Amino acid sequence: MSVTTDHTPQNPAASADPDAPQTPEQKKLQRRALVSSFLGSTVEYYDFLLYGAAAGLVFPILFFPETMDPTLASVLSFVILLAGYISRPIGGILFGHFGDKFGRKNMLFITLMMMGIVSVMIGLMPTYDAIGVSAPITLVTLRVIQGLAVGGEWAGATLMAAEHVKEKNRGFAASIAVTGGPTGSVLATLVLGLFAGLPDDQFLSWGWRIPFLLSAALVVIGLYLRYRVTESPDFVKAQAAGEVKTGVPILRVLTKYPKDTLFGILAGAGPLFMQALLAVWAVPYVAASGAVTRQEALMMLTASSVVHIFAIPFFAALSDRFGRRPVMLAGAVISIALIFPMFMLLNSGSFWLIAAAFMVGNPIIQASMYGPIGAFLAEKFEVEDRYTGVSLTFQMGSVLGAGTAPLMATYLMGMENGLGTTNIAWYFIFLIIVAAAAVFFSKETRKMHHTV
Question: Region (Disordered): which ranges (predicted)?
Fold first, then answer.
């Protein structure tokens, strides 16, 4: 572990004693930071995950030639999805650089604005029939911009929440921002699912566009909340103490924390794979089987995401009590034990068993290891390098896990051994073993102090 200095999060008006009672004003600032991080992250991930939900249902049909093989069109749509994940580390480094120099608040305002504009543009995009090859090219461009914005969003929102509270609550606070992911997924799949019930011609002509256009209203609310939140107390204190450096944060992260960075990346890849597998690949997969309709599959994902919202802070709170490593390692065991039962349920052909598969996958398998991830990553880096460090580790983990999930699932399903989802299960187990090893060889950081 590279961090050795004594650092405990404090609010601007907090006393030097980390256990001292908080004033009403301090509590108000904390609540505002938590709400702002949660709602801002929700809006951001609504925009980002809306593409994922549409990638298997809409884009292969509308943004590629009708003569193209449907499987190839789906693969290309997933490649564009991956492009957004690949650009996320770049966005993380970019916004992390300025977030570590000038503060978290302004960067979060910019990332949210970018996401809103891109989503509205996707909702207004002409199809392949209207503009030809320019349609998929434009889609790639917008997806990359989305990825840049999300790359700066996750770490900033997580830190704004975690750095406003006391050390003993840091895991839970960080998870409040993390739950913006499943909350955004709920909104994205719920809204898209409502319109997916339209006849195919109406859904494909205009129904799928409405959820993207609705993003504008959500962004206005998110921007208002972010305008009212105060800057991170940890950053303000670091700045006042002269700890904010003028160099290049990414270079410091790579040279000061090489093991922490590598372990952080590997620890996130496994649970993030499961998140994207269910959100992007599983919905069209079960719908194509004929066991459930497209709309029913989206509603199953939505229901599991609702439970997911509460499961993430539950496991994060456990990590505040028992430590990040024990909870995440237990989550790895749970993930390996339940992956084959999850696929058995998914392939059952039964409405209720398929719905149960989503419930096993999101709130249990994914959340058990993912819940503490915000604090686990944030505590690896000192304040002046934290935005960049958390952005880099999480977003690289996203590329390896979530970004490749639909493509890997499609490839593994098509393997000549005929094992189908069994191939996916074994690949997931491999990712979880790697993630567990990364957590095991990381030092416990729950009681380490990280403010200036």
Answer: 1-26
Residue 232 lies in a domain: yes
Q: What single-letter amino acid sits at 124?
A: L
CA 312 centroid distance within chain: 12
DSSP secondary structure, 325-391, as one string:
HHHHHHHHHHHHHHHHHHHHHHTS--HHHHHHHHHIIIIIIIHHHHTTHHHHHHTTS-HHHHHHHHH
By the 10 Å C-beta count (0-12 exposed, 13-18 middle, 19+ buried), 225 is classed as middle
Residues of the domain holding 141: 25-440
DSSP class per residue in 397-408: HHIIIIITHHHH
In a domain, 297, yes or no: yes
Q: Is 418 helix (H, G, I), strand (E, B) or coil?
A: coil
**Tens-place pLDDT, residues 131-157:** 999 998 998 899 899 889 988 888 888
C-alpha to C-alpha distance for 259 and 268, rounded to whole angstroms: 14
The string over 111-125, giving b where at least 16 C-beta atoms fall within 10 Å of a residue's C-beta and e elsewhere, is: bbebbbbbbbbbbeb
Number of domains making up the chain: 1
CATH code of the domain containing 54 = 1.20.1250.20
Residue 390 lies in a domain: yes
Q: How far apart are CA 280 and CA 49, in angstroms?
A: 9
Residue 165 DSSP one-character state? S
